[in-house]
Amino acid sequence: MRKNKAMWKKFKAFFKQLLPKQAIPYIDELKTKQAHYQFREVMVSDIKELLQLEKIVYAGETPWTKSAFLLEFYSKQPHLYLICECENHLVGFAGIRLFGGDGHITNIAVHPDHQNQGIGKWFLEELIRHAKASGCDTVSLEVRVSNLDAQRLYRRLGFEAQKIKPNYYQEIAEDGVDMLKRL
User: Fold this and answer.
1) Where is the N-acetyltransferase domain (predicted)?
2) Which residues pair with 90 in a beta bridge?
3) Distance of alpha carbon 48 from alpha carbon 46, whole angstroms
4) Which one of 27, 90, 103, 111 counts the least CB within 10 Å of its CB?
5) Which element (helix H / strand E) includes 70?
């Protein structure tokens, strides 16, 4: 038990060294009639809010754990994770991992109170732009079969359904639609 505590303490100290000392500047803004949104890259210090937002967006579930976010953020695999804030509150996040000519969108979540404001579209366009600039040939993602609004948005941006992945979302026993956009 003591050995585990010592290892955990070293692990936490190591990751604290990697944290940015100051906030990452905003990379873009989106103004709507309802609000003013600011976008920036994710910092490790955002993870607690990411988990809280996941619970709101995914009906109490957290598809990604703190450990999953940490592994992704510190992965050597090229990636980009962005957040959207409104009045200093996290209202959305999205991420993409680049591998073998494909940019795979790993997450996209927008608080229900801020949906239909263009945030999801902004995230998708920025992730697609990043994949293209990085030399990817395709961008892929999975979406719940029941999430018809998201599927409509993805189709408007050029994604096409490839196949159904049975029971892809095991925690809720729902199939996923595998979607692909050629760049």
Assistant:
1) 37-183
2) 85
3) 6
4) 27
5) helix 66-73
What pLDDT digit, counting tens, does each position of 115-138 carry?
Answer: 999 999 999 999 999 999 999 999
φ/ψ (deg, to 5) at 41: -75, 150
DSSP 150-163: HHHHHHHTT-EEEE
182 by DSSP, 3-state: which?
A: strand
Q: How far is 14 from 16, CA to CA, in rounded Å?
A: 6
Helix (H, G, I), strand (E, B) or coil at 66: helix
Q: 31-38, long-range: CB within 8 Å, 24+ apart, which pairs?
A: 32/117, 32/118, 34/117, 35/86, 35/87, 35/114, 35/117, 36/86, 37/84, 37/85, 37/86, 37/91, 37/114, 37/117, 37/119, 37/122, 38/84, 38/85, 38/86
d(CA 120, CA 109) in angstroms, rounded, equals: 8
State pTM to two decimals: 0.83
Fold of 26-182: Aminopeptidase (3.40.630)
- pLDDT (tens digit per residue) in 159-176: 999 999 988 887 788 899
Which structure tokens are listed for 74? 């510190």
> What is the distance of C-alpha 154 from the center of its chain?
15
Q: How many residues does the chain have?
A: 183
